[in-house]
Design goal:
about 240 residues; 6-stranded parallel beta sheet; 7 helices; homodimer; about 30% helix; Rossmann fold
Amino acid sequence: MNVLIVHAHPEPQSFTAALRDQAVQTLQSNGHEVRVSDLYAMNWNPVASAEDFSLRENPEYLAYALEQRHNSKTQTLATDIRQELDKLLWADLLILNFPIYWFSTPAILKGWIDRVLVSGICYGGKRFYDQGGLRGKKALVTVTLGGREHMFGEGAIHGPLEDMLRPLLRGTLAYVGLEVLQPFVGWHVPYISAEARQAFLVSYGRRLESIESDEPIQYPRLGQFDDRLYPLAQRQ
Amino acid sequence: MNVLIVHAHPEPQSFTAALRDQAVQTLQSNGHEVRVSDLYAMNWNPVASAEDFSLRENPEYLAYALEQRHNSKTQTLATDIRQELDKLLWADLLILNFPIYWFSTPAILKGWIDRVLVSGICYGGKRFYDQGGLRGKKALVTVTLGGREHMFGEGAIHGPLEDMLRPLLRGTLAYVGLEVLQPFVGWHVPYISAEARQAFLVSYGRRLESIESDEPIQYPRLGQFDDRLYPLAQRQ
């Protein structure tokens, strides 16, 4: 497989960075090709703006997604976006590797999503969920967080982690057609011992050894809905 | 009330901006004081980094939340963060006003959350949810999106909008102690008539007229959990 790891952590010595390095090593040892986008090191610009387009369809009024569609056709997207998009289209597996900030991605990674998941290529019109532009590829979310495992789940204080990550897992990754694998989670990372961290790395390495046979999470399929996207089941 | 509107849209003529202006006008007419942070106009930096702290507790290794705690005590947070934090502490009502990007906030607004909701002031230790540092204040999320209303809800293709917004409504705003009001949603905005847009503005104005009597959404309370944050109900 071709694997793109998008890494977003402000501390180069972080445990999140160790997870990135573990992934590079394990995946390469298993014969996969790996590329890494280290967003902090790249000084990635996360702000979607008019500057992302050098040939505006409508110079008077910015409709961001419409200009994405237009500028991807005319090959006039900003260079930094084009470079990331090329990596994404090259990849069979996308790994987003980050510390949870506010039950979601750090802003620098949210801005990679906002700017790189370009309308007209990654989705558009009726091309989303199982019909999304990136169908056939897979995605894995690898996160570290401060909370303990018992704080998540049904009835737990924060509810299921998958519910907190829903806009990312379902609303973003599954939306563009990616097969979304179960997230890998490093729990309580700022507070655990070096041994406990090492155990997470070993467990992550094992997970990645057999990542190709992982079953994806089930999400809606367009075939379950009519042309106006009303659920077919409601008619019965 | 003192009201802070945090506005994030790359197009100054957008309908989202019209919602902001409607809020300013209605709230001021009702005797409230209003301040606006227009993140695009301010060229807000959304990237959490070591540069946010001028006096590091640990200069060798960046633990972002720990440095927030330390630098808020020593008054050494970056000036742009301090200014936004002062507005937030001044406000009785926080309105986040933005277009939905990937079922969530645009990155520039995510970075306002990452950087301004400072550990040690807005939350920390056991001060979260109903014990959060901003308890006694309220929050309203005002969003525009491309989807139609029937695409959201139980059994709908995207599920309930509140579920997609969960990391923001519950994991962020409720987490810091804010009473979270039902979001105001402008549906299908890029595709509707000027009359339909006008109807949303009127409806938003009416909502804001009586915003002080709105009932907040119910979220977990720390009293429902033991000292280690296991749910008390499970013991019975």
